[in-house]
Every structure is written in C-alpha cells, then in structure tokens.
Specification:
alpha+beta; about 35% helix; elongated
C-alpha cells in the first residue's frame, strides 16, 4: 500500500478490487481516467517499448469473455472502436447508434493505433481472484473510531481516506463502515477469503439490518453502504493485513 500511487496504478488497482468482489459492469469516464492506462498508441510503443503498464484497451476482450461489461464515456480517442460492441454518439442531447460508422472507420484505416505487440498479447489478464485472506488483528484500532466526514474515518491513529470512493454519498454510510471495521474480527474466522468476508457482511446486513454491526444498539444514525464501498474502504485501511491462500 502506498500514498503515492500514480493515476494509472490507482485505476488498475481499483478495477482489480471491484472484480475481486464480483463486479460485472465497469463504468468509466474519460475525464477521470488515467490516459496511459486507457490507451497506448504505436508511436509511444516504439518510443518506450518496455512500459510495464498494460492499457485497458488491450484487455477488453478478455474481460468480456470473463463476463465483465464495460461502458466508457470517451471523446478524445477512437482506439476503442475496434473492440466496441456498441458505439453511441450523443448529438443535440440525443443518443445515436453509430456502431456501423465506427467499424467502417476502422476498416478504412491501415493500422489500429493501440494494437499490442506479440509479447504483450502472450501475457493473459489474471482474472482468477479470491486468494487473499484478511487477518483479524489488521482491524484492531489503537484508539477511538470517529467518522469525521463522508470521505474520512479516524480509525485510532490511522485515517482511512475515502475521497475517491465517490459512491459514498452520506456520512451515515461511512459511519456504518467504521462500525463494520470493528465488527469484522467477530466473524472473520479461519480460511475466510476476502471476497467471502465482504459477502458475509453484506448477507448479515441484508438479513439482520444495520443494528447487527452497530457499535451502539439502535443508534439510528447509520445507513447501508453497498458491498463494493465496504470492500473499497477495507482496502484503504492502512493496518489491513492479508495472507495469500495457496
């Protein structure tokens, strides 16, 4: 874990986190994406042939074959035309299906700018997740737990920074996550994989409601976060400790 990850590394990690929890649809907006994670044209490949970053455009079909759909809002690059199942163009606030036109443009060109080379194609995307197991003592707080705002939990001497978890919209959701952190050691058990842990929490919330994880009985100031935001918050807990199941 680091506080200094690049935009491309952060975006890649966020996608892997979502897939681990079972996301089947990814929504991406060009305005908030890292360019070098999204595309990599032929000129840049020639200039820097050994870049460790694999652009998303090269892995779209693998993700699709694994049952993951991707919706991208993009206006600055046509590199996704060749792998798009559907291309929708907004014109005068009206959506127009321009898939056929996009495919015609691709066919008329001599090269597709973001085609990977053979060595990059030979490196399959690791789509098998679920080997991480969280350890109970990683959730121990060295002091009080306070939800300061929607994007910040003070967890003892550690701050859990949730600024980029944009789907959290109400401080009561974040407060619930703080309580869930303290509840986890009661259910974590032995051999419980990370995805199973989050699924168990979600099932408890569905069956028993928020009072089941609340630190104070019937507090009335909690609201339910989705399992994806719970997982995102856990992954941003600096004290989190995991082992890899073999």
């Amino acid at each position: 874990s680091t506080t200094n990850a690049s935009g491309s590394t952060s975006q890649a990690a966020n996608i892997i986190e979502s897939l681990e929890i079972g996301a089947t649809t990814l929504l991406l907006d060009e305005d908030t994406c890292a360019t070098n994670f999204m595309i990599r044209d032929q000129r840049m490949q020639q200039l820097v042939p050994a870049d460790p970053i694999t652009p998303l455009v090269w892995k779209i079909r693998e993700l699709s074959a694994a049952g993951v759909s991707i919706i991208i809002v993009i206006g600055g690059s046509g590199d996704y035309f060749h792998c798009a199942d559907r291309v929708i163009v907004m014109k005068d606030y009206r959506p127009l299906d321009c898939t056929d036109r996009a495919k015609q443009i691709i066919q008329s060109e001599k090269e597709i700018m973001s085609t990977p080379n053979a060595s990059q194609v030979a490196q399959p995307l690791p789509l098998t997740f679920g080997s991480r197991m969280a350890l109970p003592h990683g959730f121990q707080s060295s002091g009080k737990v306070v939800t300061r705002q929607v994007q910040l939990i003070q967890y003892g001497t550690t701050n859990v920074e949730l600024t980029c978890v944009a789907q959290l919209v109400e401080v009561s959701q974040t407060r619930s996550i703080g309580d869930i952190f303290q509840f986890i050691p009661k259910i974590i058990g032995n051999g419980l994989l990370f995805a199973q842990l989050v699924a168990s929490i979600d099932a408890i919330l569905e069956r028993d409601g928020l009072d089941a994880v609340a630190m104070f009985e019937r507090s009335g100031n909690l609201s339910r976060p989705r399992k994806f935001e719970i997982a995102a918050a856990i992954n941003r807990l600096r004290g989190l400790q995991v082992v890899i199941s073999r």
